[in-house]
Design goal:
Helices cover 47% and strands 17% of the residues. The chain has helices spanning 2-48, 100-117, 135-145, 158-163, 190-203, and strands spanning 56-57, 71-74, 79-81, 90-95, 125-130, 151-153, 170-174, 180-185.
């Protein structure tokens, strides 16, 4: 009699195990399917992200502090001292003529520069800080693609080092008091920069 009970108990246990395995076997494809859907969704989001959406705010120990006392040389050979630009909103765009995002961003900077020019003395000063390339190459790029704002060349990459710029494009906004207000990484748009500066002017 006990042998019969033992066999029955074993069969029942076997059924439970089989049933559990069956449930697991049914759940596993469902989980895989959910993961696949999430991965496809993430891929669509990444592919659909447009460079025209504007740059992304990035942290920096310089935010809220006086801008570094970086110096350089302008296109015409005159000295450029960032600390002497107080009294104006200053926008620094770090630029490399061989950087594809920089090239894509350039038309937006042209529009931004034109928009700021319509504001007269209230308009921001835009400077391209050159991280790579010879002056004749930079001038040829601007001649072909537009833009009449100054380019800043620095010895030993003084500007990029002072601002901690490792990858371009990057755009920084400095207020009339010489304090760093914003760091934007990746491509920016004219609409984005105009909107940010308009908001800053209202609060300043």
């Amino acid at each position: 009699m006990s042998d019969v009970l033992d066999e029955s108990t074993a069969e029942a246990a076997g059924d439970d195990t089989s049933g559990g395995g069956g449930r697991r076997n049914r759940i596993a494809p469902f989980i895989v399917g959910v993961i696949a859907v999430l991965m496809v969704g993430l891929f669509v989001v990444l592919v659909g992200a447009s460079p025209d959406d504007g740059g992304t705010n990035a942290d920096s120990p310089l935010l809220g502090r006086p801008a570094p006392e970086a110096t350089g040389t302008l296109d015409d050979g005159t000295a450029f001292d960032l600390s002497r630009r107080k009294g104006s909103w200053v926008v620094l765009n770090f630029f490399d003529p061989e950087c594809i995002p920089c090239i894509r961003e350039h038309p937006e900077l042209v529009t931004f520069s034109e928009d700021q020019a319509t504001l007269g003395t209230d308009g921001a000063e835009l400077y391209s800080v050159i991280t790579r390339g010879e002056q004749d190459e930079i001038e040829a790029f601007f001649a072909e693609n537009g833009g009449d704002w100054p380019a800043v060349y620095s010895e030993a990459d003084e500007f990029p080092v002072a601002f901690g710029v490792a990858q371009v494009p990057e755009t920084w906004i400095i207020d009339p008091s010489g304090v760093v207000q914003l760091r934007l990484i990746s491509q920016v748009t004219a609409e984005q920069l105009n909107s940010i500066l308009r908001s800053y002017r209202e609060q300043y």
